[in-house]
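Exercise 7. Predict the structure of Sodium:solute symporter family protein from Cytobacillus firmus.
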Amino acid sequence: MGIIDWICVVGYFALLGLIGYQTSKGVKSVEDYNVAGEKVTWPILFASLAASVLGGGASTGMAGNVFKDGYVFMFAFCAYGVASVLIGYFIAPRLKAYKGAQTVGDIMEKHYGKMAKLLTGILSVGLCTGILGGQALALGTIFNVILDIPPIVGILIGMGVVILYTSFGGVWAVIQTDVVQFVLLGVILPVTLIIGLFAAGGTDTLIEKVPSAHLTFLGSWELVSFIGLFVTFLLGEALIPPYTQRVFSSKDPEHSRKGYMISGFFSFGFFFITGSLGLVAYVLFPDIQTDQALPTIVKNLLPVGVTGLAVSALLAVIMSTASSFLNATTVSFMQDIYFPFLSRKKHSEKHYLFMEKALTLIVGIGSVIFALSVPSIIAALEYSYYLWAPTIVFPLVMAIMWKIYNVTAGLCSIIVGAAVTLIWTFVLHDPFSLSGVVPGVIANMIAFFIAYSLNKNSSVECQPSTAGKEMVENDAL
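Solution. The predicted structure, encoded as tokens:
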């Protein structure tokens, strides 16, 4: 890269640090740190959600897997967008009815009891740390391929900056940096695709040089494999802590609906752009490794100046997701595990803020260790989804949409779903090439209905017992 490119990259990092520092001055309470004072309007919510959802998996991971398998992977990945649109329309507005809620565990406790809150907190921390590790791995790949920096050094630099502004400014710093990052990725990546298509000889030439299977709906995949991965992506990030935290931070139900739905529609176009860049890499650089497709295009095709902006955009799309999951991991641990189960006495607001910032550093280090132990970005995401889709999603939706209160049903569904997923994946080794998420979700649903039907008399609202604020449901929605 030229001097102009380096100026762009260094300037981008400096801007993120400045935002974190400025935001930290306005963080006076745990509520400010966790849900930004519930003042986020729908345009900001849309930009923040879009930047958070479209992370390393949707950019570097998407390009790499389309490079390997074709558009079939993009079609499976579109399940994210489908989930966002459905959640935005039906569920996001209802989340705002839980006054004072800051985590998914707050909702689960209200409907299924204190133990459900603990299990949700543990699963939330595991899920977010795993996905955070995937983003760290993507950062290392970009630094290595484009800047010739060893992956571990790149991970430490990228995650160091993320930890800096996230720990100082909390969710409001994350949201503000998301908006900056959204603007970068929304402009630079489409420009990168146009340049890439020109270098490949145009769209017609690209189509001629790409295997025909790469352009079909299923490619070389079996239908059952596609369905398994689609369901995994559909439910794997449904209502996960960072996204529900964004809804809790929104101004009102209508703002949460608009922001969530528009981010879902936007994702379809983004997936097509990054997926198509994978095909460009297949034609121009057929011998590279899968996860190197997108950074290789940026390094070799873009002119001076644009390269620096594109590197910043790639870092932006990954760092925005990383910061969201880093903050959500800290909030979930403190609100769902520490306050209700580990804290023995009350401390000052300043003490709790210090603890959250210190925990942010610890989680960041844990994600780096995880990143070094997984084979690819998408593998990191899939492993993480096993913790969420077959355990929390269905009972959470039943609680929000149909106001079900039943401790037995909630706990049984979580435990059975987790057990079936683990057995299917690690004992039976995915029979029929079907992801363990699918049988896990089915078992989760069956266990919920059986337990609910046998224990209807226990369907009473649970009283929150955490250190958090009381939640009062608004039946006017």
